[in-house]
Design a protein that fits this description.
Blueprint (H helix, E strand, L loop, with lengths): L18 H6 L5 E7 L14 H13 L4 E5 L13 H8 L3 H5 L5 E4 L3 H9 L4 E4 L9 H7 L4 E4 L11 H19 L6 E4 L8 H9 L11 E3 L5 H6 L8 H13 L2 E6 L2 H16 L2
Parallel strand pairs: 1-2, 1-8, 2-3, 3-4, 4-5, 5-6, 7-8
Helix pairs in contact: 3-5, 5-6, 10-11
Length: 285
C-alpha cells in the first residue's frame, strides 16, 4: 500500500478558473475527448491535421457528451514519435485551438513545453496537461501558477523497466511533482494526477496501475485515466488501435470503479454511454 503524502497548504488568491469543480461534480467520471492535430499519433495520426476536420471532430465529441476537449499538437506516443520545436507545435495549434475554445466546452492543452502551454492558456484553454508532470520543462510550473490554471500531472519514464515496482515509482514521481507544484505556488485544488497508462511502462505495469489505482487516492487529488486504445489491450487480445474499443471501455469502467474522476477517450459517445449506464445501474442497487 502506498503511504499517504502530505498535501500542500492551499494557496491564497483569486478563485481562478472554475472548470475543475464543474468536471468533478458529476455522479460519474467526466469524459475528456482526445483531439490530436498531429501526423503521427499512435491511433489517429493525420486524421485531424486540417483545421476544418479538427474543428468538426471537436464539435462531434462535444455533441457526443465530451465534458472537456484535450488538444495535442505533438505526438507523445512512446515509440516512433518525432520531437518537434515549440514553433512547429504552435503552427499546428494556432488555426485550431481558438476555434475549439469558441465552442464553449473547456479545453485542455496537451503539451510538455511551457511556451506552448502559456500561449494556449492565454488563448482560453482551461487546463494544462503535462505528460512529464512538471518535471521536464523547468518553466512549466511557473506558467501554470502565474495563470492560476488547473494542471494534470502525469507519471512518465524515459523507458519501461520491467523490474521496478511501478506503483512505488508512480508514488515517488507524484511526490516530486507535487513538491514542484507547491514551491511554484500552484493551488492544490487545481491539481489532477494521471498514472500515465502506456507511458514508460510495460503492458503488465499499465494493467497493474489500473488494478491498483485506489492506492493513488491516498494523495488526495482527483485521478485521471487515459487507457483509450493503448497497447496493453493488444497483449490480451491482439488488435490494432482502432479495434480496441471493448478493451478501452473495460479498462475505463474499472478505472471509474477504482476512483478515476476523469476519463480520457478517443471514442467519446461509447465511453459516455458506458459510464452513464454503469452509474444508472448502481443507483438501482
Amino acid at each position: 500500500m502506498i503511504a499517504a503524502q502530505p498535501r500542500p497548504t492551499a494557496a491564497a488568491g483569486p478563485a481562478g478558473r472554475p472548470v475543475l469543480p464543474a468536471l468533478l461534480s458529476k455522479p460519474y467520471p467526466a469524459v475528456m475527448g482526445v483531439l490530436n492535430v498531429t501526423p503521427d499519433s499512435f491511433s489517429d495520426g493525420g486524421q485531424f491535421t486540417a483545421p476544418e476536420r479538427a474543428l468538426a471532430q471537436a464539435r462531434r465529441m462535444t455533441a457526443e457528451g465530451a465534458d472537456l476537449i484535450d488538444i495535442g499538437a505533438e505526438s507523445t506516443r512512446p515509440y516512433g514519435s518525432q520531437p518537434i520545436s515549440a514553433d512547429e507545435e504552435l503552427q499546428r495549434l494556432q488555426p485550431v485551438l481558438p476555434d475549439v475554445v469558441a465552442l464553449g466546452v473547456p479545453v485542455s492543452i496537451d503539451s510538455k513545453k511551457s511556451a506552448v502551454v502559456a500561449w494556449a492558456l492565454d488563448q482560453g484553454a482551461a487546463i494544462a496537461n503535462d505528460v512529464w508532470g512538471l518535471q521536464r520543462d523547468t518553466g512549466m510550473a511557473a506558467v501554470v501558477a502565474e495563470r492560476n490554471a488547473p494542471v494534470i500531472i502525469m507519471h512518465n519514464r524515459d523507458s519501461a523497466d520491467p523490474d521496478i515496482d511501478i506503483m512505488q515509482d508512480i508514488a515517488n514521481f507524484f511526490a516530486a511533482s507535487l513538491d514542484i507544484a507547491a514551491r511554484a505556488g500552484i493551488s492544490p485544488d487545481k491539481i489532477v494526477l494521471d498514472p500515465g497508462i502506456g507511458f514508460g511502462k510495460t503492458p503488465e505495469q499499465s494493467m497493474t496501475a489500473l488494478a491498483r489505482l485506489t492506492e493513488l487516492q491516498s494523495f488526495g487529488f482527483p485521478l485521471l485515466v487515459g487507457a483509450s486504445r493503448k497497447r496493453f489491450i493488444s497483449t490480451v487480445t491482439p488488435s490494432e488501435p482502432h479495434q480496441r474499443l471493448g478493451g478501452s471501455i473495460a479498462a475505463h469502467l474499472l478505472a471509474a470503479q477504482n476512483g478515476a474522476r476523469i476519463i480520457r477517450a478517443h471514442d467519446v459517445a461509447e465511453t459516455v454511454q458506458a459510464l452513464r449506464v454503469t452509474a444508472a445501474i448502481r443507483e438501482q442497487g
